[in-house]
Every structure is written in structure tokens, then in C-alpha cells.
Amino acid sequence: MLLSGNDMEHGGGSVAPVLSVRNLSTSFRVGDEWKTVVRNISFDVAPRETVAIVGESGSGKSVTSLSIMRLLPKKTSRIEGQVFLQGKELVSLPEEEMRRVRGNDISMIFQEPMTSLNPIFPIGKQIAEALTVHTDISKAEAKAEVIRLLEKVRIPNAKGRFDEYPHQFSGGMRQRVMIAMALASKPKLLIADEPTTALDVTIQGQILDLIKQLQDEEGMSVLFITHDMGVVAEVADRTIVMFRGDAVETGATDDIFHRGKHPYTRALLSAVPRLGSMGERKLPLRFPIIDIKTGEQQKLADVTDTVAKGRTPILDVKDLTTRFDIHSGLLGRKTGAVHAVEKVSFDLYEGETLSLVGESGCGKSTTGRSVTRLINPTSGNVVLDGYEVMKLDQPTLRKMRRSIQMIFQDPFASLNPRMSIGSAVMEPFVEHNLGTKAQARDKAAALLEKVGLSADMMKRVPHEFSGGQRQRVAIARALMLDPKVIVADEAVSALDVSIKAQVCNLLLDLQQSLKLAYLFISHDMAVVERVSHRVAVMYLGEIVEIGPRAAVFENPQHPYTKKLMSAVPIPDPSRRSIKRNMATDEIKSPIRSVDYVPPVRQYREVSHGHIVQVA
Description:
This protein is about 35% helix and about 25% strand. By secondary structure, it is an alpha/beta fold. The chain folds into 2 domains: about 15-270, 3-Layer(aba) Sandwich (Rossmann fold); about 315-405 and about 485-615, P-loop containing nucleotide triphosphate hydrolases (Rossmann fold).
């Protein structure tokens, strides 16, 4: 049972809540009808407390936060119920007064900082605006306060970066700017809506540590919205689980994790991969799937070994180097180069998954695109299914690509929004003249069934599918040419936790039945541990550690591998008070001068197949 604001204030000497939400319902106008998307939500946030609202896309968690802030469009939305901020009722507050509350008493951090920051104004000016709107302060005082805030959120050389623009900051540093802006007027409540979802694992760790530290220093309350149960365990005192607009379970985070009763809560928790849970197991492991209606766990067969070792690798990469020239000046002379991939070597066997892991900018996606010749490498040697990829002319290259296909991170961006998914899946087969349209239609229908969709969906267009379903369509299209290698470039990164588990299981099932080889590109170490046979860790365009999955995860040797692993949120509420004290340095730039000569790297073998770059 949830305590009301009065109960908390008078019952047993407890203090009044900072935020008290009572029977909040939000509806949107759809045509002539009102559709309710949040139903009768009630909760409190006490002083200095962190409450997490957790659920998947469409559960209503973000709509709840936008309703509290009254940021929904007036004409097409309707908010009912009561929201009290330190006793002041917000739902019925006049707009002018509500504007003073926003950014002053209550602040919000959004998921994507680049869409929240104005690209044409320096970041210092944007944070200063948050101060001058709500307080009577001079420009000089505002600048001094902004520099103090930037230092507080651990931005190096804060004074020198005051006049820089958003595009000059990395994703993690832009999110720090947003936090500085949110803290400018010392709010009583901070709403953080998926503030770490789009960030690399190490940057995510830094932001979580930062929010915890600033909460201690400023005494704020935090309403944290996420779909990541690992993040919830690290930050939340109490947790509200939302499912299709309803709060299905509420309680102390420890109780939710260890004694969660609702099937949906248990389904969310079961889908969270735990780093280190694989131990010495050599083969990948399917994710457990719990039926949301019954709470029963589906029975899943073990993954069997399909790796055809001892034969020629299906993909053999030697000293792959990809650089992008930088030209500047009136004459457009070459002034440098981005060393995106530098002398990368690996092999991949039939039925095997090799994962490339690292932060944004490390070169892993460029490696995937280079081996498919979507990007032309600078040098090196790539042999794929007997083809010497670097030497192919256009007609032979086109034929070679039947052996290797890509699945991209955002299926909506890689599917034509005007083309039916049946036509999208059939297109590769038709373009390569592999048969008639009727044969293409039959094969597309069979593949859609294979990836868990139905053939009668072929006439639908992409916007009629959920994110997980669109990714299944993308997988079916990649399989249309019967490839031997699939490059999965962050193929599950943008998916909700239970959908991610289903898609990973699908990829493992397809590997079992079709003996596919995967080059699995990801920054999610917990997922990589679950699906991989071998792992290669990339940093600044180079592979710094490579080996069998068990060897790399059980005995990491390179400092960067250890840093990646220490940053992974662990779904254990007992670790909530632990701060990782991670360095806030940004990843170094891969831009080099024209005369730069890369150093010759030395490697040592730790155990059979486990190779590490010597620092």
C-alpha cells in the first residue's frame, strides 16, 4: 500500500514527500475518442530519495513524467488526478506559474541530449539562460556559476569549454551539460528520463555515479525512468513497475528484485543478463523467457556446438586498415586522417559468433562495414568464402555480398517506410535474379514465419510494427540470400530488455539451424558474454584483446577490457551505495597528422587463443 502525503507527514514523525502523485491518469485524443495510456498512478518521492519507474516502451513511464511536468500538448492530451510538489498542486496550476516551477523547483533530463540542446548556441550561454530566467543575476555572475556547475559535473577545462557548441562534445559530455543545466536553479526534484540509454557502458557508469554523488551533495530527490533493471538496482531506493499504463508492482527495490510477485516484474528481471554468470561455459546460452500472463518460464533447449573448427575460416581478416582523409584550407589539401581501423586481424568460422566490443568511436562498426566493402578499406587482406574482397570488381563484389549480410541498429532507418515489409524482404532475392517473384514471395513468407512473424503480415508497412518486430523483419531480409556470415551491428542495442532477449534467442536459434557465422558488434558486455564464442575488444581502432569468451571474461588482461567490465550495471540492489570512481576522461581522438606513423604493436598469448596487446 502507498502512503499518502498526509500519512507521510504525520505518521510516525516521517517528513512530507517532495513529490506526491495521486490517481494520475493521462489520455490522448485519437480521432474523436480519448485513449487512456496511464491509469490511476499513485506514488510519493521523499526528500533525498530515488524512485525508479521501470517498464518497456509503451508502458507509460515517460508519459507519467511528462504529465508531472505538464509538457504534453494541451489540445491532444488530458491529465486527471493530482500532483503535489512540496504541497503545491501542479495539475490545476495556471500556465504562467507552472513555467516558474519548471526548471526552478523541478528539472528534467531527457534521453537524447543533442535534441535538447540548441546546436547554434554555445553550451555556456544555454546553461546561463536557465539561471537568468529564474533568478535575478548579472551576466558575469551567471557565467561564474555556469563554470562552477560544469566543474561540478566533471567536465574537464570547464572555463575553456564555456563558448564551445554541442557538436564539439561527446555524447557523455553532452549529457553532463544537460545535468548541469538541470541543476542550475537547485531543484528539489530531478526527473531523469532514460538519461543513460543511448550512452556507452563506461559513460553510463560515469553518469550514474555522477547523479548519485550530486544527489548526496545537493540533497535532491530523483525520479529515475528507465527500462534497464541493472540501472534500477544501482540507483533506486524504491521501484514502480509499469506495464501497459498500469503500475503492476511497487515496493522497496530490494523487495522487487528478490521477492517480486507480478509475472511481468519477474519477466523483466529474468531477461537481464548478469555479467559473470556464464563461468567456464564455452557455448552461448539462450536468455530465459517468462510468460507474462502465467509467470511460467519457457523451456529452452541448450545451444549445441556448431562451430566448424579445423576447416578454413569462412572469414579471414589480416591487417585491415581503414582511414578517412581530412582536407582543409582553400585548396582542400590533406591535413590529416581519421585512423578508424588500424591493422585489425581476426578469423571467423562457420557456426561461430565473434563479438567486437568497445565504446563509440573505437572502430568496431567501421570494421564491419569494411569487411563487407560498404566502406573501402585503405589496406589489408580480407578473404570471405573464397573471395579476396579487396580485389573484387563491382559485379563480383555484388555476387560476394550474397555470402555476407548486415543487420543494422535501427531497423526503421534501414527499411523503406513506403514499402511493404513483404516487398522489403523479397527485394534482395529479386535484385540478385535468384528466381521468380512467386518464389521470392514463398521464401519471404517462410522466413517471416521462421523469425516469429506471420506470412499474412507481408502487406503491412514498417510503422505498423513494434521495434522488436521490425528487427525481426530486418533479420528475415538478411537471410533472404542464404548468407554464410551476418554482421550484426548493434542489432539489439535499441531494444527493450525482454525484446532484446527474444531477438538474441532468435539469432542463436538461426545459428543452430543454418550454421550461420556472426560478427556481433556491440558495447553491451553482458549481452556479449551470453551470445559469444569468442570476443575481441577494440580501442582506438585496434584490437587490444581477443580470445575465447570464457578466457576474456574470466581473466581480462588489458586495462581497457577491465574498465569496460567494471562499468556494467549489475542487477543487485545491495551494490546501490557503491561508487565506481571511474575516470571521466573522454575517449582519445583517432585523428592523426599526415606524417603520423603507427607504432608497431607487440602481443602476448595469455592462454590458448587468448591474445593481449602489450602496453
